[in-house]
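Q: My collaborator sent me two sequences in one message, no labels, and asked for predicted structures for both. Can we handle them in order? The first one she listed is below.
A: Yes, handling them in the order given. First sequence, followed by its structure tokens:
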Amino acid sequence: MAIRHFALLMACFFMSACHTTSHRQDFQAPTNSLVVNAQFKHLTFFQEGKGERLHVYIEGDGRPFLNRFLIAKDPSPQNPLMLNLMMQDKSSSFYLGRPCYFTNSTPAMQDTQCTPTFWTSARYSEAVVNSMIAALRQHLSTHPHQGISLIGHSGGGTLAVLMAARMPEVDQVVTLAGNLDIVAWARLHRYTPLKYSLNPADLNLLHIKQLHFGGEKDDNIPPALSAAWLKSMEQAMHIIKDADHNCCWLMHWNHVLTQINQQMTP
């Protein structure tokens, strides 16, 4: 199936990542903001910037459950943190929406392949990872870049690591409060294991440059949760003071971006 890729309009709909509301603002996406691939639809946004590198932004898990036992009909986040962070980035950047996120909230965009499994137990499954890779590679086929950085928050960090392990063209992976050991995370919170999902802790990424950032006050994915895997990867967690899982990454983003860019500077 041919894939169509267009820019997402009106990012100003989204509010600061440190502010939450009781209801997510309805997202009115134009029909030209979809990437359509063989399995899932992906909402995307590309902004041209400086340099030849591409920064790929991947959102977190949003709101897959309304409470501990009730699955949400639409997992899309109330405030897309990664889109807000991307707006501060002067590099060429690509916001790669996850399968079933945003595409379920508007009738014209609905994806018939989506079932709640893909934002619950299979949120990091083979099908999801492969679809994300296919969508990114379609963008790269028409917008070639020299060097790819995958940047993901929370579950987006999980996907960034899983994608990087399968994409030779990716030479840097960056996680923000990333869920890098989904078994340890489920055990910590006494959640049902994500039995259809892949676990980054099972992978070896020694061949890829990495940066992992954790929030000092994060009790959802405490930085120490990934310590064993990071040690095996010869990596350390960079702690962001005064940050928790969602707040306040926007405040520290220029400093974090500097570290990301410096790591890839010859």
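Q: And the one she listed second?
A: Here it is, processed independently of the first:
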Amino acid sequence: MSENLSNKPAKPLHKLKARLKRSGEKRVYSWRMLIVLPAWVSVAFVASNLLIAGLLIALNWIHVSIDSLVRPAIVSTVIATLIYILTIGIAIAGPYLLKRKATTDTADLGLNRLVSWADIGLAPLTFLVYTVVAGVILALATSLFPAFSVDQAQDVGFKAFGSRADNLLAFGTLVILAPLAEETLFRGYLYGKLKKYVPTLVAALVTSLLFGVAHFQWNVGIDVFILSLFLCGLRSLTGSIWAGILVHMIKNGIAYYLIFISPIVGG
């Protein structure tokens, strides 16, 4: 009886020591992961581009034109979609193949639950606040740096296709697939992993910086950097990327309207 009582405190003490040891190890490796994770996502993105380029070269070598498989107007759509899908796949599968065990789960990606009413309510509110903040910052940038142009249009890879089918494809890619893929990769995988090893603010800043750089245009990069900070905040607040996906869909939906619908209706 006395032996059992004396053994009871030992178990929680052992667990506490194990947690302290793990937390100590995490602190040691945190700043290394701040470099490793963004670098790994960048490598996955470059590898995806090379794989797609290699596929196109191989098709051309066997005299199969991509234009014969997909209409020329939507080639860029297919390529951009494949690149993002491959990037996510490589980023997740690479560590698994090396360690022979899963290193990423649905909680890491922020996809461990379905969309909620809170996500739906927060999305438009966050978009409005982001729009005001981004507008103020871009206006300040223009006044401080006259050479900085906020009017430079973002190249979304689409043209005015004209046909209903092509416009529907553009809508599906820009408003649905792109937000899902980008949020899963950046606010899901990258931010979800980084905030385990570094302070949340640092993880948000690094994620947003890489997201801005990925858009290859100064004005667009600054705008999406600000957007990403809001989306990272939503991820931390809700524990999911669904609210961020909805915000991203609203933004891209407005862009779709301005590019494809407004010229038709004369808006």
